[in-house]
Design goal:
- The structure is a homodimer of 133-residue chains.
- Chain A is an all-alpha fold and 133 residues long.
- Chain A is built from 5 helices and no strands.
- Chains A and B meet through helix 3 and helix 5 of A and helix 3 and helix 5 of B.
- The structure holds a DNA duplex (30 and 30 nucleotides).
Chain lengths: 133, 133
DNA sequence: TTATACAGTGGAGCATGGTCCACTGTCAAG
DNA sequence: CTTGACAGTGGACCATGCTCCACTGTATAA
């Protein structure tokens, strides 16, 4: 199928698909061209793009996605390997969540300190939200 | 003081300080040069950098930090304004946290589905972690 | 015939926040 | 007098993931 079809069926834009192609996440066989030089994408590319979509939706970067696809390529993407990668990602996500929660508390405390020590129209340089006390 | 001192006392590297200078977050008066052309940073710059540090630590981007500093500049950084910005940031952070929590659940479910339906050495294309079922 | 929508390529640009580099000048110690 | 640490400038480069652009070729319908 042509790239437009592929775009429609994967939800990726043509530009994105071409971007992935440039970066080696997908590839068209050199001979898969129509007479007019249009690329004829085989169905496996559609499958692969849907796979990329799935993996990306799980929070993996394009590089990580690439690695995973490489493992699939050489048939080394075992359940244990993939579960391990996914679990590592869970840990990373939990770290990020913890960081954000801490940040949120910092902000909340700053707001509290500000609203309890100064009037709304007062200059915020006095309440610790802008300047260190 | 010279940039080295400033770096030491703020924890920013010289490069970062110069980067901030290039981007207008700080500025040295055009005349604040020693005879040897070294910049003589007034104490206000030190204060300003520490302020930047504080604001950044609250999760604001450099652009947002810039905006806040601009408000301070024209004395419009009231407690209400600042508390409002901080609260908006809290909301944004909570959105991010919610996204990450959902992502974590997606991953956990994927792992669970994988580990319950296939043996560790099995090919992960069969368990939904790589390919849509 | 011409407008349009599609296809191809290569490369620039965006946001974010620095980091590093080359090349030059200055100053103090040994 | 040389060495080293510091200062200055301008600009390139990094990761991330696209997005857009120019320029060209092809297919189709009015």
């Amino acid at each position: 199928m042509l790239i437009g079809q592929l775009a429609q069926r994967t939800g990726f834009t043509r530009d994105t698909i071409r971007f992935y192609e440039k970066h080696g996440l997908i590839a068209v066989p050199r001979k898969a061209r129509r007479l007019n030089n249009y690329k004829e994408y085989p169905d496996e590319v559609l499958e692969r793009l849907l796979t990329i979509k799935r993996i990306k939706a799980m929070g993996f970067t394009l590089n990580e996605t690439q690695e995973i696809l490489d493992l699939v390529e050489v048939d080394q993407a075992t359940c244990a390997t993939m579960a391990g990668k996914a679990n590592a990602k869970v840990v990373a996500i939990e770290q990020k969540i913890a960081d954000l929660v801490r940040l949120r508390e910092t902000l909340r405390n700053a707001v509290k300190g500000c609203t309890t020590t100064c009037a709304p129209e007062a200059n915020a340089t006095r309440c610790g939200l802008v300047v260190h006390r």
